Amino acid sequence: MFRVFERLIDPFQPFPAETPPTKLMPYMWSQLRSLGGWLPLMAFTSLLVALGESLLFFYAGRIVDLMTGAGPDGFWSQHGGETLLVALALLLLRPAVIGINHLLLEQTLVGTLNVQSQWRAHKHLLGQSMSFFQNDFAGRLSNRVMQLGPATEDSAYIFLEAIWFSAVYIIGATLVVTQINPWLALLLVSWLVLYIFYMQFLVRRITKAAEKWSDGRSAVTGRVVDAYANIEAVKLFAGTKAEETYALSAFKRLQLRVHRFLRLATEMQVVLNLLNGYLMVSIGGLAVLFWSKGLLSVGEVTAAIALTMRLNGMSGWILWVTIRLFEHFGVIREGLRSIAVAHSVVDAPEAPALVKGPGEIRFEDVSHHYGKRRGGLDHVDLTIRPGEKVGLVGPSGAGKSTLISLLLRFRDVEQGRILIDGQDIGAVTQESLRHDIGVVSQDNSLLHRSIRANLLYARPDATEEMMIAAARQAEAHDFIQGLEDREGRRGYNAQVGERGVRLSGGQRQRIAIARMILKDAPIVILDEATSALDSEVEAAIQRSLQTAMEGKTVIAIAHRLSTLAEMDRIVVMERGRIVEDGSHADLLRQEGLYARLWTRQSGGFLADTAE
Ligand SMILES: Nc1ncnc2c1ncn2[C@@H]1O[C@H](COP(=O)(O)OP(=O)(O)OP(=O)(O)O)[C@@H](O)[C@H]1O
C-alpha cells in the first residue's frame, strides 16, 4: 500500500537541464510540476477533509436538536437510519479519505520533493565551473543543497496540510455559523480579521528574530569549528584562553538572540489567548442570549460553541506553521542564491567530442584577466608540438596556473583561442577534452573511497593487472599493500579517509601519479608533481615518469628548476606573458630571467620574485 504511493512519482526522473528559477514561487512550481495530476488530487482530498471537519460540528448541533425534538422514545424510529449512515461515514468514509489524503501528502509529496530538490540542485552544481567552487565554501554549498530538501518539501506540505486545509475549514465554519445565525458569523469574521492582522504583524517580527537566531548559531558553529579544525595552531600558540574569549562573545550574542525570539513566542501565546477569549465569549455569549430569547435551539448553541472551541485549538497551530512556512521560504531563497546560478562554462549545443590526435597544443593570442583589467594571462601565443615536453617556469603570480586552467577549460578564455590538434577546445565537449589530459597537481586530494576506486576513477574499464602495473610504476604498490583502514580493509580495498587524510602527502602524490599513468592520456600536465616526495622516492618516480611520458605532450610546472632537466624546452612567464622560450642551455646563455632564477636557486627552490 505504502509502496504504491511512494512509487507514484520518480524523484530522479529526467528533467530539463536548465538553471533553477531564482525566485521563490517559480522555483516551488518547478518542483511541484513533477507531481503532475496528483497535485490537484492532493488539494481535492485536503478540501474534502477540511469540509468534513466543519460538517462534524454542524452535525453535533443537529443531533442535539433531533434528540430534543423526537425525545428518547421517538428518536430511533424517526432518525435511526440517518444516525446509522453518519456513524458509517465516520467509521469508514472519513478514515478512508483522511488516509488517502495523508498517503498522498506524506508518501507521494514529501517523499518525492525532499530528495528531488536535493538531487536536482546537486546535479546542477556538479556542472558548475571550477571558478564557481573556488568562490564558495564546499561546506556552505552542501549545507544549502541539503537544507533545500526539507524546506521545499515542508513548504508544500504546510501549504496543503495546514494553510489550504485551514482556509477551507474556516470558510466552511463561517458558512455553518451563518446558517445558524448571521450575527454569530459576523463575530467570527471580526475575530478572523483581528487574527490575520496579528498574524501578519507577528510573522514579520518572528521570522526576523528566527533569522538572527540562526545567524547567531552559525557564528558560534563557525568559531567552534575553526578552533577544532586549527587545533594545532591553537595549541602551538597557547591560544586556548583566546579561543574561549572569542567563542564566548559569540555564545553571549546567541543567548541574547534566543531570548529575543522566546519573548516573541510568549507574547504570541498571550495575545492569541486574548483573541480566542474574545472569540469564545462573544460567540458563546451571544448564542446563549439568542437561545434565551428563543432565537436559537440548544443544538445550534452546541454547534456554535463546539466550533469556537475547535478554532481556539487550531489558531495556535496555524500561527506556528505559518511562521515555519516563512522560515522555509527564507532557507529556500538563501539556498537559491548559490544554487540557481547559471553554469559559466557550458558545452555548445551539439558539441562534438574532441577527436584524439597526436597531442599538439596551440594558444593563439590568449588573454584572460578573471573579468578584471589585469592579472591572469595577457596575449599569450604558444605552440607545443606533439610529443614535446615543455617546462613552465615563472615567479609566483606569473600566470602558469591560469594557463593550465584555461587549457583544461576550467574557465573560458576572454580573448583568443586554444587548439588541440587543430580543434578549438571551446567547441568540443568538456568531458572529451579532459579525457585526453592527464593531470598530477600539488594538491592531490583523493575521494573518500577505497584506493581501488580512486585509481579506477581515471579509467573505470581498467583491469586489475593494469591498475597494479600503474601503481608499481608510480612506486605506490608496496605502500598500498601495507595499508589497513579502521574497519580492517586492506591494500587496494582500504579507504583513504576524507580528502585522503589517512595518507601522507607523498603517498597521495604517488596515487595521483599512478592514476595519471593509468589514464594514459596523450597530453600530460604535471603541476609540481613530485613536490611532496623525498629525494629517494622522487628519483625513482622521475624515472618511471619518464617512461610514462614517452610519446606524450607534456607541460610541467616547476618551482624547483632541477626537476626540469629532462624537458625539451622551457617557457618562462612573467606578469601574464611569455618572456623567454628555449632549451635550458639556450636560456642560460641568454642571461635573462631564467638564468637569474637558476642562479638564485638555493636548495633547489625558486625564490619568489613577483614582488
Ligand atoms: N581566481 C582568480 N581570480 C582573480 N584573479 C586571479 C585568480 N587566480 C589567479 N588570479 C590572478 O592571476 C595572476 C596569475 O595567477 P596564477 O595563479 O596563474 O599564477 P602562477 O604563476 O600559477 O602562480 P603560483 O606559482 O604562485 O601558483 C595573479 O595576478 C593572480 O592574482
From TrEMBL:
Identify the PROSITE patterns for this entry.
ABC_TM1F, ABC_TRANSPORTER_1, ABC_TRANSPORTER_2
Q: What are the residue boundaries of the ABC transmembrane type-1 domain, all occurrences included?
A: 41-321
Locate the transmembrane regions by residue number. 38-64, 84-105, 156-177, 183-203, 270-291
Name the Gene3D superfamilies for this protein: ABC transporter type 1, transmembrane domain, P-loop containing nucleotide triphosphate hydrolases
A cellular component term from Gene Ontology for this protein is:
plasma membrane
One of this protein's Pfam families, by short name?
Answer: ABC_tran
Keywords attached to this Swiss-Prot or TrEMBL record, sorted alphabetically, are: ATP-binding, Membrane, Nucleotide-binding, Transmembrane, Transmembrane helix
Report the locations given in the UniProt record: Cell membrane
Q: Specify the protein's topology with respect to the membrane.
A: Multi-pass membrane protein
Q: Where is the ABC transporter domain?
A: 361-600
Q: Which SUPFAM superfamilies match?
A: ABC transporter transmembrane region, P-loop containing nucleoside triphosphate hydrolases
Q: Which GO terms describe its molecular function?
A: ABC-type transporter activity; ATP binding; ATP hydrolysis activity; ATPase-coupled lipid transmembrane transporter activity
Function of this protein? Part of an ABC transporter complex. Transmembrane domains (TMD) form a pore in the inner membrane and the ATP-binding domain (NBD) is responsible for energy generation.
Q: What is this protein called?
A: ABC transporter ATP-binding protein
Please give the organism.
Pseudooceanicola antarcticus
